[in-house]
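In the lab's daily routine, each protein ends up as an entry in a very long ledger. A line of letters takes care of the sequence, but it says nothing directly about the fold. The three-dimensional part falls to structure tokens, numbers that each stand for a local backbone shape. The outcome of that step, for a single protein, is printed below.
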Amino acid sequence: PATILDASGAIISWYLPDALTDATQVRNLGILRFARSNAKKTVKVNGIWRTNQEWFKPSSENDVLTPRCINLSPAWFQQGHENQLDLEVSTSLKGASSEKILKAIARPGAIAMVALRVMHPEQYWAGLRAFSSLGEKAESKELPKMSETLQYWASVFNSLSVICNRQTPNHRDHLSIPECLDILTMVGNYSNAQMSMPSLQLEFRYDLGCMIGFSGRIVRHGVHAVEGDWIAWAWYMRDSVH
């Protein structure tokens, strides 16, 4: 385990190998069984790198895991409409499998939340206050789907991306909150994964069950050189929601 401090002594990154047990890793794989209908929509021939097939592992009929990226949130703005329209439940949680997905992510969500309670207590309490406010807003605006989803959402993070078989270029997440930590974990059957943070001149082994916490808005980061099948879970907070 390791922590990275800035010049003032504040912790800006946490590295926790073997944070997830084997049983938890198996549970983390389970969500993909309930989200097959969205698989083809998330990988495109061109466009931004997050959905561009160039960054995904080439797929075949024999794939154990289909390359995809699933975004989940109980309350966020539609892409390109930050603060312009009412918050709504993400598309992936509006289908027939939404309750199963929410139950499947409950334990991983609770683990990430407990980790955040230690890593960044102020962010943890701010998240609780934000969800209390979201619940009141959903009730006052008579948004039953959002109210129901918020009841099952077991995390203080307002967003989760489940990313399967995709490497990422070095980047910053401009929709996240600078002062807040994102928490990332990896599961699957793979080797040689590396999490790079060039702005800190660091590179971490991104092994099975590993957990890394850092500000995705401030720290440039990327995932490279992965061999096999892998799934990254990225918990984060959208700035516009908080």
Observations:
- The helical segments are 22-30, 98-104, 106-119, 121-140, 144-152.
- The longest strand covers residues 182-191.
- DSSP finds five helices and eleven strands in the chain.
